[in-house]
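During data preparation, we tokenized the protein backbone, and the record follows.
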Amino acid sequence: MALIVHKYGGTSMGSTERIANVAKRVAKWMRAGHQVVVVPSAMSGETNRLLDLAKEINPEANPRELDQIASTGEQVSSGLLALALMREGIDAVSYAGWQVTVHTDSSFTKARIKSIDDQKILKDLNAGRAVVVTGFQGVDPEGNITTLGRGGSDTSAVAMAAALKADECLIYTDVDGVYTTDPRVCEDARRLDKITFEEMLEMAGLGSKVLQIRSVEFAGKYKVKTRVLSSLTGPLMPLDQEMKSGTLITFEEDSTMEAAVISGIAFAHDEAKLTVLGAPDRPGIAYQILGPIADANIDVDIIIQNQSVEGKTDFTFTVPRADYQKALDILKGTVQQAHIEAKEISGDPKVSKVSVVGVGMRSHVGIASKMFRTLSEEGINILMISTSEIKISVVIDEKYMELAVRALHKAFELDQK
């Protein structure tokens, strides 16, 4: 008998028919003798509907009230799933995050989990019940309902698995695992049987949308065995087959992983590049440029500072495309006029980032040269480069992004087992 945490996304909970299928799947696991905790998301589109209502009532909606409203979506889906499980003959009980209790900080709309009380859940599990706990939410020290931000149910599920010392956390989604790259961009993309937490963390941070990055961080920190698999398969598929499906995210590298130098190609198309030309090269210049950007709550990704020439340097960095104009205005206003008197501020809102990721890079040389040669042969100019121990990222013109992904996928033979 194993203790398993199931997480189901909004698509999996998108209708009463799909909720009934989730109940059939959970019931199958329980009839095989396993203890199951289920963490569901709100029904597909429900959170957006609730937040749209709030913004319609008051465009300057208070974050505390937004959490109060948004949290109800998961309560509905959890209650419906508990009812569906009862119809399957399974004793089930549902809880909201504040009833368990999932303790968070007070950062409304983007709270972080601090701890989870497991006694109530363990008592129910030992009594033979299926326990359904709302994802995406918790309660702060003052008793206010909080939500964890987009994709927060993934983090809820992994945190629950860590608190309960579960044998495995199964993340059921509308895809059947983690792929070498997005199949919509490269038809030769292949599903991975295994991937390390490090690789998955890089993939999630670089644009892969399969898992929320915070959930991967949590899984890696607490060594929670996590599997990404499809909820769209038949709910009564043989259990031994289901237990081996999808992609297993593991902590340990094995010999087969080492053989695969590159595990995947990640990309982000919504990037923008900003350059400060002719900035004075003096101590603190990077802070004087990026400090006001950070104060405006704008994330900065790749940063390059050129070598000083006659006391002047060029400083280039990337930001999310949605923040491009805001960042450009800050540079041309506050930064250029009050701090650095740069020669020129320029930018390009139409760039993309493409990255190769793999733990095998630690023990293999020539990955960067192979990547750069491949892009060169396709006539793709590299604008910026960033590296870490297990990834190389390049910034290129967005019109070449899909070509770059397909070319690199083929060059590193990711279409082959």
Remarks:
- The longest strand covers residues 264-280.
- The longest helix spans residues 324-340.
- The radius of gyration is 24 Å.
- Residues 277 and 344 are 5 Å apart (CA to CA).
